[in-house]
Design a protein that fits this description.
It contains ten helices and eight strands. It is an alpha/beta fold. It has one domain: Vaccinia Virus protein VP39 (Rossmann fold, 3-Layer(aba) Sandwich), CATH 3.40.50. Strands 1, 2, 3, 4, 5, 6, 7 and 8 form an eight-stranded mixed beta sheet that branches. The chain is globular and about 50 Å long. It starts with 12 loop residues before the first helix and ends with a strand.
Length: 258
């Protein structure tokens, strides 16, 4: 299988951790984008409870914690990410209100109606946008919010190369109007949508500089999975710079209405 036809899910998890564990965020985003999305959420208090699903090492979670009084639980499949997450809470003196736990977004450790806000930047694709919205809804109180970023087409038609890449990597990619309709069908009132700035993507790829990639290749010398993974990351970055006007992340904020 060529690297152009693989998806990130098919690579060794240890390699993925070694690669993304060195970055503050494991996907495109910024503190400014997190705060913009947070500005659409009403009613959070010290009694509120937030879950950040697919939190990684907590780049966005720490921004939420520094700008709300609420309790926050970060959930991620990678124990190593959660270890770093909890170390970050200690460094920022947030450990009294923020905790990271290892868990699967397909089987979240929450009770029905327990949460006031579900957050997920760059992660819902792991379960799928429609499935995530539907499956996670029960954990929200009536009137609770969900805020997620999702890879989205900006145009109705795209060049074949980028269309084929994302249909293989993430077949659920769709247009903004389709995603909003999916949110409505899942039982949410769409509150806001906005495009994550291009700079978040260029910064994300810039952090994955050649020295970082070469270091990983040296560590896993002779490991074809590592070689394919780096080739995949480089190809994805190349495609973004070539076709960025056709797609990107969109923040979707919705409210559970009943």
């Amino acid at each position: 299988m060529s690297n152009e036809n693989q998806t990130i899910h098919e690579f060794d998890l240890n390699i993925i951790y070694d690669y993304f564990g060195k970055t503050e965020r494991q996907g495109p985003g910024s503190p400014e984008v997190t705060l913009k999305a947070l500005s659409f959420i009403d009613g959070l208090t010290a009694e509120s409870k937030i879950a950040d699903i697919g939190c990684g090492t907590g780049g966005q979670t720490m921004v939420l914690a520094q700008n709300t009084a609420s309790e926050i639980i970060g959930v991620d499949l990678f124990p190593e990410f959660i270890q770093q997450f909890n170390q970050n809470t200690q460094k920022l003196n947030l450990q009294d209100k923020v905790k990271g736990v290892t868990g699967d977004m397909k089987n979240l450790p929450f009770k029905e109606g327990e949460l006031d806000l579900i957050w997920s930047e760059g992660a819902i694709y792991n379960i799928g946008f429609e499935r995530g919205l539907s499956k996670w809804r029960k954990f929200l109180k009536t009137g609770g919010y969900i805020a997620v970023t999702e890879n989205t087409w900006f145009t109705q038609e795209r060049p074949t190369e980028i269309e084929d890449f994302w249909q293989e990597a993430y077949p659920e990619i769709d247009t903004i109007s389709s995603k909003v309709t999916q949110m409505e069908k899942a039982g949410y009132l769409p509150v806001a949508t906005f495009v994550v700035p291009e700079s978040c993507w260029t910064d994300y790829y810039e952090v994955q500089h050649p020295q970082m990639q070469e270091s990983l290749l040296e560590k896993y010398k002779g490991n074809k999975s590592a070689e394919d993974f780096i080739a995949y990351q480089r190809y994805e970055a190349e495609l973004y710079h070539k076709y960025k006007e056709y797609y990107g992340y969109v923040f979707y904020i919705g409210k559970r209405i009943k």
